[in-house]
Specification:
337 residues; alpha/beta; 14 helices
Length: 337
């Protein structure tokens, strides 16, 4: 077996793969170069297993590759792989659902706390050379920038999947009240996570914090628009660490500019990276981050522990847990060199 690995994997996972053959480890984190087109085809000549995170493997490349047997995309949604083309060639595609769930849940809580305690404003005040005497600056913190606790605050979670559940678990020790909208999760199932099931309108009206954790589908695209935002309390905050396509970005800007909601924390945008002249940049009630939800050192281990065992299952004739195109498995048999 020959494996080309351009995703980051930990040493334990690489060692497990090397028991079966040659591993060409060229992680994007080190090379800083994505493969594509003819360069990707050349890199995959003679390769049996391809493990990637960012490289785009499209129909033309898949059709040109004669030896490729397994594709693993270290993403929850493997949008970088042409799934229909891989399926036509009988190539199973492994993905990594939940690999960044802890990282995104942590960041979601961080954004809530930054907004709740006015961290950005108070930190800027401390660094301001024109802040005045120590006592006047301290007085401003206590009188003008006093924050709030998460205790007894209602947090509305839109989408109670892997990330939404971890957000709920992190909030429970704070004493927050948890509600969620997810048409695919039952009331009883939500109750197991200490969450009350509500419809979207109720969630928007009752929440002190609205946080998005849904996947983008035809059903969810644009699900939070001007009407839904208008239901929010003027003291409420909006958090999006999922995808901007779930929202109407212009409607959010207007609500924030006109102070119809208290503030927001965004890690995702319609255009990334966010242009320096974007209207959001002019607002003082929003925390803006450059899509860092999955940017943690631990992600490497998480995705390794998901995709490598599945690849070994395929090599050994067992059924993988996280295959996008299971219809190919009936006729799949790994060709050992």
């Amino acid at each position: 077996m020959i494996a080309l690995v351009t995703a980051s994997l930990d040493e334990e996972g690489l060692a497990d793969l090397r028991k079966y053959g040659e591993v060409r480890y060229q992680p994007l984190f080190e090379t800083r170069q994505m493969l594509g087109g003819s360069r990707l085809v050349r890199a995959l000549e003679g390769v049996d297993v391809f493990i990637t995170e960012a490289d785009n493997l499209k129909e033309a490349q898949i059709e040109a590759l004669e030896t490729l047997q397994i594709i693993a995309s270290c993403r929850g949604n493997p949008v970088n792989i042409d799934i229909p083309s891989a399926t036509r060639k009988g190539i199973p595609v492994i993905h990594a659902p939940g690999r960044n769930a802890d990282a995104v849940a942590d960041l979601t809580l961080a954004l809530m706390l930054i907004l709740a305690r006015n961290i950005m404003q108070t930190a800027a005040l401390l660094r301001d050379p024109d802040r005045g005497s120590d006592m006047s600056a301290l007085a401003r913190v206590y009188f003008d920038l006093r924050g709030s606790e998460m205790w007894e605050k209602t947090v509305g979670i839109v989408g109670l999947g892997a990330i939404g559940r971890k957000v709920a678990a992190r909030l429970q020790p704070f004493g927050s009240k948890l509600i969620a909208h997810d048409p695919y999760i039952s009331e009883d199932a939500m109750a197991e996570y200490g969450v009350k099931k509500v419809d979207l309108d109720t969630l928007m009206r009752e929440s002190d914090y609205v946080t998005l954790h849904a996947m983008v589908t035809d059903e969810t695209r644009g699900m939070i628009g001007a009407r839904e935002i208008s239901l929010m309390k003027p003291t409420a905050y909006f958090i999006n660490t999922a995808r901007s396509a779930l929202t109407d970005e212009s409607a959010l800007y207007e609500a924030l500019r006109e102070k119809k909601i208290a503030g927001a924390g965004f890690d995702v945008f319609d255009k990334e990276p966010l242009p320096v002249d974007h209207p959001f940049m002019r607002l003082d009630n929003v925390v803006l981050l450059p899509h860092i939800g999955g940017a943690t050192h631990e992600i490497t281990t998480h995705q390794t522990q998901i995709v490598v065992p599945d690849i070994l299952r395929l090599i050994n004739g067992d059924k993988p847990l996280y295959v996008v195109n299971p219809e190919v498995l009936e006729s799949f048999k790994f060709r050992k060199n």
